[in-house]
Amino acid sequence: MTAPAQAMDSGPYAATLLAHARAPRHQGTLLHPDALAEGYNALCGDRITVMLALRQGCIAEYAFRAEACALVVAAASLLGECLIGRDAEEVEHLAARFDGLLAGAGGPPIECGGLNAFADLARFPARRKCARLPLATVRAALRGAAHANTEEA
Amino acid sequence: MTAPAQAMDSGPYAATLLAHARAPRHQGTLLHPDALAEGYNALCGDRITVMLALRQGCIAEYAFRAEACALVVAAASLLGECLIGRDAEEVEHLAARFDGLLAGAGGPPIECGGLNAFADLARFPARRKCARLPLATVRAALRGAAHANTEEA
Amino acid sequence: MNVVLAETPLDIAALRAQFPLLARTVHGGKPLVYLDNANTAQKPVCVIEAVDRFYRERNANVSRAVHALGEEATGLYEGARDVLARFIGAGSARELVLTSGTTMATNLVAYSYLLPRLAPGDVVLTTVMEHHANIVPWQIVCQRTGARVVAAPIHANGELDVAAFIGMLGPQVKLACVTHVSNVLGTINPVAELAAACRKHGVPLLVDGSQAVPHLPVDVRALGCDFYAFTGHKMCGPTGTGGLWARREILAQMPPFFGGGEMIREVRIEGSTFADPPARFEAGTPNIAGFAGLAEAVRFLEGIGMARIAAREQDLLRYATARLREVPGLRIIGEAPHKAAVISFMVEGAHAHDLATLLDLEGVAVRSGHHCAHPLMRYYDVPATCRASFAFYNTEAEADALLDALLKARALLA
Amino acid sequence: MNVVLAETPLDIAALRAQFPLLARTVHGGKPLVYLDNANTAQKPVCVIEAVDRFYRERNANVSRAVHALGEEATGLYEGARDVLARFIGAGSARELVLTSGTTMATNLVAYSYLLPRLAPGDVVLTTVMEHHANIVPWQIVCQRTGARVVAAPIHANGELDVAAFIGMLGPQVKLACVTHVSNVLGTINPVAELAAACRKHGVPLLVDGSQAVPHLPVDVRALGCDFYAFTGHKMCGPTGTGGLWARREILAQMPPFFGGGEMIREVRIEGSTFADPPARFEAGTPNIAGFAGLAEAVRFLEGIGMARIAAREQDLLRYATARLREVPGLRIIGEAPHKAAVISFMVEGAHAHDLATLLDLEGVAVRSGHHCAHPLMRYYDVPATCRASFAFYNTEAEADALLDALLKARALLA
Ligand SMILES: Cc1ncc(COP(=O)(O)O)c(C=O)c1O
Ligand SMILES: Cc1ncc(COP(=O)(O)O)c(C=O)c1O
């Protein structure tokens, strides 16, 4: 047998992200969603389905199911607290802020605190699209589009 | 005005070749050729038409017309003395010897002395096909083929 | 596989010293452990210098100019064709079309050879384990003609179901396609046997040699196939190079594909006539510097000897496979008895991309994803795998480093 | 041509020092006078080193692996796309498909854009002065569909007959094609005017920029064309590189051409879906090292400034033209008022190939032949011409050397 593993540089895997990936919130199904979209990253094979219940144009309930990497699952889990109560415009605003964070653009932290744990992804451009997939899929659902991917602009 | 031109390295252009190119022999037309073929090198644009009169399988008369560079014309001119009286097999033999000369393969000089002036072409592979075109066209004519080129094997 | 065991072992340290990139570090000083060779191989100094020298000393266009530089460049380019043709056992350099890689080679066959021959109901036979470059070109031309692509199945261990493949041959099959070595499973397919069966049915066989030419002695005539495609960047050569070998009589029948310079005999606005192969299929200015480098790559590989390379990589495969089995929850995908040094795996509870990122942070470069083989992923019902792929310049210590990094990553993720 | 006259003259000696090949000698010590730039350009050290550095430090495949090397390689490749797109004035890098050169670019348009649109009776309009790369691809797809290629005439001085070109536009014309700068005549065509006329007739216009991008400031949006093709090796970049710019809405409609890796979204044996442009048109491993070099070439050219390059080359053109007129019996083919520094000529009593060989023996590299422009040769009724083509790094002294060598050659041949 090999010597036990030693501490490793965990890169983009902040402890809170790993915790969300292991025990995601909002994972599940809405039986009668007002909006639903599927996200797929061809390059990774990541898949996510996002379901929304809407009330007066605002997100009232949110659930997702994913077959995907830890970053997708953590992002999908952390998104929940940010989405509830927001309308499409606010979600677009959030997405712009989140993209800025992932691109390492700096600026003040995002108000939904948990998402800031993704800041280290700026160093890993190939994995950014994983973090972006859930929100891109939510945006697609709000637009009425059935599909989203984050490999192409 | 510019100073008068000084002596230059004449490369493959041996004096005898230039003399033949300026005043080629066998240039003209056979009215009733037994065999005729056209040679064309797409890369250079060289064109030659070769006409043969045959007697008992041997070349009795030979003429050519060319729109081509000095090397083609010189080769076509010099060929005359080698071809008259030869049959197809002897022409094939000559072609093999000539190809050897052009490839710098060494060996004894070709019996048709004039052709040996092409020996320097071994240093100029891109121009070898010019020297080869007339003989390739004669061989095509003897085979009954209408066309020849020396850019492809 | 005919591996002649080498008498003298390779001096791996001396070989590695010829690959500048292997001395790199990543992520703040971690020595690079490059195990992504099936994706692209590293280049020895002699190849890098051949490209460099071309631009410094020889740069000119080919087949066009009569000046000294042009002759030298043409000599280098045609010399590369000769070297490559001999390397893969072609009967003549005239049977070798130089391309920008395997993808261009298979697409050339698709558009020039196959498209004019397809009718509704016709079939192109491929296999479940193929790279997209050996699937999608056939789909594109089939879609235009009402023909269809079918795929022979594989066994769960990653071996081709040879009997099924042969059973799918028939008069409606206009082309059969198989990879020589799978880029995901490592499986070495019994090409000679498949070629014999194809010949019996009068079906031409195309072999994707992308993963074979860099790792095994290849002799296209001994294999008995009709087309053989390969790519330069995986065999220690420059990017943007490769080739398509095809039987002379097949090439001679194929109409031109790309139009442009060098592939013509005579152009008139009303219509053109075309050069003989291989020039007919090489329109435009080729990657001349790249081919100068690729010829050097072949000389480098031949200097080591393909049989010794294959034997060395078998040692690495055995060693690395045994070590990886120490990782709890690790499952190897592809365990054919004849396989090259490619190990795809999954680790329970850890997604392939997360593993790859964490391995990368330790300096270990592996590929994760679908490896351009969606149908194979679907067959195994996995979204993605990790893949460690070895070259002769890898070491047992690098396999150990992979293992250590995997154990750490697993501890973090699981 | 919008040439802004440069305030400070170029330091040609310093520029030349950056091109290692210009220091070469040929034929036993003759200094090389390289006047075959329209065929391919020489490469500055920064380009050669960028290629070299890629292989030594960054070599990995693109868009596939998540490891550090893969990210770096992808960054270089996509960075090159950005640099090139900006250089030619594209609205977005997503409108730029990276290809192996102009030939691949025009063939991509032929097979993907044009072929599905052609019906019997349709017409592709080109001109008599085009390179085969802007004629033969159209012929190949026309032949399959019953469409035909027609060519607008030129004036005897080498100018396009613009009125005739515009007069030939009409509803049956499915694509119009014109070279920005003729590789034989040097003629700079009035692309913006042609594009406006094409737009009026609803005919898309493809411009062959092979000879323009290296020599003029180019802004594809200002030109108003629909497709713009160019090749890297003529703009001081590596062999095997180039690009096709096309309007976003046109690219979006085009079906895939080559099938393979990277261009797909999802592959099933029964059928596949495809990525958005430009990835849709970039199947397989690209010439990554080549594009790293091409980005550097653009930076190099921009460092000098395209307007200054154009102005300098106009000086050379004027000087060389005047000197060549001193040769008795010399006839220049192509005397358009707007022309680039390309001079085709014939000398009475001397065949072009003989001249070129004799010039080469003096160290002067020119191209002789048909320059991949058979229809143009037929128009002028000449089998071949000699062509001296200049780059900014050429000198007046080199034009003098051309003249001296020509006088000697003429004395020998005539
Ligand atoms: C005007 C023109 N078009 C097209 C080409 C073809 O370019 P490439 O051979 O790089 O594809 C050339 C150069 O050969 C050219 O001069
Ligand atoms: C088996 C196989 N076929 C085809 C290819 C495509 O090669 P390229 O991308 O060099 O065209 C690859 C590599 O990516 C491969 O592994």
What would you say this structure looks like, in words?
The complex is a heterotetramer, with 2 copies of chain A (153 residues) and 2 copies of chain C (414 residues). Chain A is an alpha+beta fold and 153 residues long. Chain A has one domain: Sufe protein. Chain: A, CATH 3.90.1010.10. In chain A, 37% of the residues lie in helices and 19% in strands. Chain A has a 4-stranded mixed beta sheet with strand order 3-2-1-4. In chain A, a hairpin with a 2-residue loop joins strand 2 (46-55) and strand 3. The longest helix of chain A has 19 residues, at 125-143. Chain A is globular, with a radius of gyration of 15 Å. By secondary structure, chain C is of the alpha/beta class. Helices cover 39% and strands 17% of the residues of chain C. In chain C, the strands form 5 sheets. Chain C has a 7-stranded mixed beta sheet with strand order 4-10-9-8-7-5-6, with helices on both faces. A 4-stranded antiparallel beta sheet of chain C has the order 13-14-17-16, covered by helices on one side. The longest helix of chain C has 20 residues, at 68-87. Chain C starts with 11 loop residues before the first helix and ends with a helix. The model of chain C has no long low-confidence stretch (mean pLDDT 96). Chains C and D meet through helix 2, helix 3, helix 4, helix 5 and strand 6 of C and helix 2, helix 3, helix 4, helix 5 and strand 6 of D. The structure holds pyridoxal-5'-phosphate (2 copies). One pyridoxal-5'-phosphate sits between chains D (38, 101-103, 131, 133-134, 179, 183, 208, 210-211, 231, 233, 372) and C (261, 284-285).
